[in-house]
Amino acid sequence: MTRDNKFGFAPLETKSMKPRERSVGPMGAAVRDAAENLTESTEAKVEQRRQNAEDAKAFRAAADEGRVLERVALAEVHTDDLPRDRLELDAVAQSDEMEELKASIMARGQKEPVELYRGEDGRLQLKKGWRRFTALSQLFAETGDDAYAGIIARIARADDNRLTRYIDMVEENVVREDLTFAEMAQVAITAANDPQVDEPSADVLVGRLYGALHKMKKSYIRSFVTLLDALEGDLTWPKSVPRNLGVDAARALKAGQGSVSDLRTSLSVASTPEAQNAVLADFAGGSAPVAKPAPKAPKQKFEFHVGQTKVTARQGECRIVSKQDYASIPKAQLQRAIKAFEDALKEEGKPSIKSL
């Protein structure tokens, strides 16, 4: 025994020892695989949760900004808060263009969304897309098909102000040049009278509502603002007033030309758009406005009796019916009677010899 240390033995020779093999058994391998899978699964779940959180945040931001499309039941959409930018809505609803839009929706579905917003009472109100809403409403009423019971819509964020809603309402129609100058002027007047809009001047609102338009077009709109303001409800067909006539009439009103009271009186009795525009043209030209009544349509037919004889008169025909046997009357006698009849018609209205 060597005395290499105080205990009397030397360190073991490791070179002479065979290394012990420690292979993993089935149970150990299963435990290790389960641990690795659990680690990978946990990392995947953490990454998925992070991605879901980011997606939810992006979706909420898009929804708040009104960039998310939703299908809303027609029954939940109301149109009584924001005045429409079109005059004669009933005529538009029954027009050929509305039928064409309905046919397009039936064939291809609703391609463009409408825009909604929540009013102060929480109800969904229509901002943009009155024609699409009307077309779907008519289709649902006519067919009862649930495919037309809802509308694809974008719901605007709640912090937009009243004037912004007016601007959004007219924006697409102005871009498409689908509104007349009278309709655009009426929107400005309506907005100026809206208590929730701060600006009370319709002239100023023209610049804010139609800021993207050329200054000349805005000048035309302001002329129609003057026209509609001065004539109020006496201008029955404002959409039918041509641009130049409206501008000329507005210029005459601003210059104090003629009597506005007489003009309104003449307009109030105008029975057609043509008669109305003739009155405006007379006023703009400096002459006293006179309502030109529409020509009376000729009667298609009328009847009367002379004794026992019934006479029916119409264009190109005068029919005589009586108990008389006209076939028994000699031809020459009938000819004399007809000639006397024609001579009497020609002489009607001429002075007779006795009256001279």
From TrEMBL:
InterPro entries: ParB/Sulfiredoxin_sf
Family matches, as SUPFAM superfamilies: ParB/Sulfiredoxin
Region span, Disordered: 1-28
Superkingdom of the organism of origin: Bacteria
UniProt name for this protein: ParB family chromosome partitioning protein
Organism of origin: Litoreibacter meonggei
Phylogenetic lineage: Bacteria, Pseudomonadati, Pseudomonadota, Alphaproteobacteria, Rhodobacterales
